[in-house]
């Protein structure tokens, strides 16, 4: 018996979606399938050149798709606000917080945050909060909007170091990545607890071949490590299209449970999407609330309560 595939996605005509990092990899395939099934999709991309190339490629693959290219740099809160102002005016049914960076040498965002925590978590925390009215508007028209935040199996090794979230005293690139991915997972769970008009879930792709793995070695100037990660992708990883299945399931399946996480069936490594077990630290009492308070303070984005 086969597992869930894109053929199981229902019709999405009349729905509107935003996918961050839609120019490549998992984000590209997530956006493509949402568009192919009728959703109007905003491709939220940092690079105008790569975004346009993805837009053109997607348009060729799905000529009738309703696509809009948007400029979004999650490492710059001013860019996040500009994007939300430009694309948050209409009801938003699906938000896929997909974009991310992995295992980079220490860098800072435009606002002075450590790049992995700032981009992967704080940028998406701010974006979701700034699009909250659009998500609530869709919920009032068509039922609960869906927010999918992409995490990673590296969340299992993550720890939120509240005394050094920005890695200023000690920075290890993989520990910083694990922390950011744990933050993604905790945010998804806490958002579902706090905002009843939404269904917030997490998803992770398992081991999928994207350019994410090679970005860190490239930034370090390590051609050997860049080649090694490329070889690993070729030999062991599933495709980016397969890696997008958990995100697509989380974004569209009527069986999704709020606060849950969806990933590959086989050891959370590869295969069709299912609900997966999450690391115990993601459900530690008070951790989500503490992360939320810190995130609001750092970004200046407060989630407004629902209007009466």
Automatic annotation (TrEMBL):
Record has Heme as a keyword: no
Species in which this protein is naturally found: Actinomadura syzygii
GO molecular function, one term: oxidoreductase activity
UniProtKB keywords: Oxidoreductase
Presence of the UniProt keyword Transmembrane in the record: no
Protein name listed in UniProt: SDR family NAD(P)-dependent oxidoreductase
InterPro entries, alphabetized: NAD(P)-bd_dom_sf, SDR_fam
Lineage, broadest ranks: Bacteria, Bacillati, Actinomycetota, Actinomycetes, Streptosporangiales
UniProt xrefs under Pfam families: adh_short
């Amino acid at each position: 018996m086969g597992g869930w595939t894109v053929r199981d996605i229902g019709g999405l005509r009349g729905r509107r979606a935003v996918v961050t990092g839609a120019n490549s990899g998992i984000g590209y395939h997530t956006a493509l399938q949402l568009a192919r099934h009728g959703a109007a999709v905003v491709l939220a991309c940092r690079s105008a050149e790569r975004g346009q190339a993805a837009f053109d490629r997607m348009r060729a693959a799905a000529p009738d798709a309703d696509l809009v290219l948007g400029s979004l740099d999650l490492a710059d809160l001013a860019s996040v606000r500009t994007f939300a102002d430009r694309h948050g005016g209409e009801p938003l049914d699906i938000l896929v917080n997909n974009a991310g960076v992995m295992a980079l040498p220490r860098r800072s965002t435009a606002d002075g945050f450590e790049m992995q925590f700032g981009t992967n978590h704080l940028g998406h925390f701010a974006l979701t909060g700034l699009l909250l009215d659009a998500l609530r508007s869709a919920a009032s028209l068509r039922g609960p909007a869906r927010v999918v935040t992409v995490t990673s199996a590296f969340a299992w090794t993550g720890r939120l170091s509240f005394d050094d979230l920005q890695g200023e005293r000690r920075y290890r690139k993989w520990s910083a990545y694990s922390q950011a991915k744990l933050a993604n997972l905790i945010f998804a769970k806490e958002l579902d607890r706090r905002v009843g008009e939404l269904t917030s879930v997490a998803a992770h792709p398992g081991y999928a071949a994207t350019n994410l793995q090679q970005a860190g070695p490239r930034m370090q100037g390590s051609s050997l490590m860049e080649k090694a990660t490329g070889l690993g992708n070729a030999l062991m990883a599933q495709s980016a299209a397969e890696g997008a299945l958990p995100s697509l399931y989380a974004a569209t399946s009527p069986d999704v449970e709020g606060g849950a996480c969806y990933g590959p069936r086989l050891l959370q490594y590869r295969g069709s999407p299912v609900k997966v077990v999450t690391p115990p630290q993601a459900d530690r009492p008070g951790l989500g609330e503490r992360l939320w308070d810190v995130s609001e303070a750092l970004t200046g984005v407060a989630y407004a309560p629902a209007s009466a």
